[in-house]
Each structure stands twice: as structure tokens, then as C-alpha cells.
Amino acid sequence: MFLSPKKPVILQVLTVVVSRIWGLKERLLVREEEPEIFVFQFKPEDEKNKALDGGLWHYGGSMLALADYDGHAPLDALPLYQLEVWVSVKGLRMAVRDERVLMHIVKDLGEFVRANPILV
User: CB atoms < 10 A from the CB of 2, how many?
Assistant: First the structure.
């Protein structure tokens, strides 16, 4: 996990807060591997998956960028530079609700992943 904190991180506080946010039943181990890079060690695999797939997370006003880590790979090889987010565009007229128009809207935001088929 990558965290660019606004103030220093106290590991015990980080551990308690993210455990509560993720609703973990088992103890979570956290260590700072490098400055602003923390490694979380989960007991059950399903709790790790809940954290990885459960949504966008933040701590102390900073977005958490999470990636699965095997404990052996170099940390700079982890994909901690990309977050998939859902963007809602309000007030878009029906005549321009197609994927081509949406591509123009999102081109400055990043890479287009998919559109909600109900709205297109």
C-alpha cells in the first residue's frame, strides 16, 4: 500500500483505523517498508481480497493505493500509481449519451475502462 500522508503516520493508529474500516476479524500486521510505503499482512486471504477489491480507501485525508504483494518482489515494481474510479457525469443530454462522447469527456481524466450500459 502507498500512502502520501499529510502528517506523520503512527503505525498503531493506522492499524486500528484500517482494521475497522475494512471490518477485519483477524489481527492485521502493518510495517513501514519504505518511507510512505506500508505492507499489510492479513491472516485469511478473503480479508486481503476485501481490502483490495472493496472500494477506494483513504486514511488521514490521503488516498490509499493498494496492490497485492508477495513479500519478495521489489516494491517499485508494484502498480501503486493507478486507481480505478467511477465518475458520474450529471446533466448529460440523452442525445450525447454514447461511448464516443464519454471518451471525449474522460480523456483528460485518465484511461477509459467502461461505461454503465444502463446510461449509455
Answer: 17
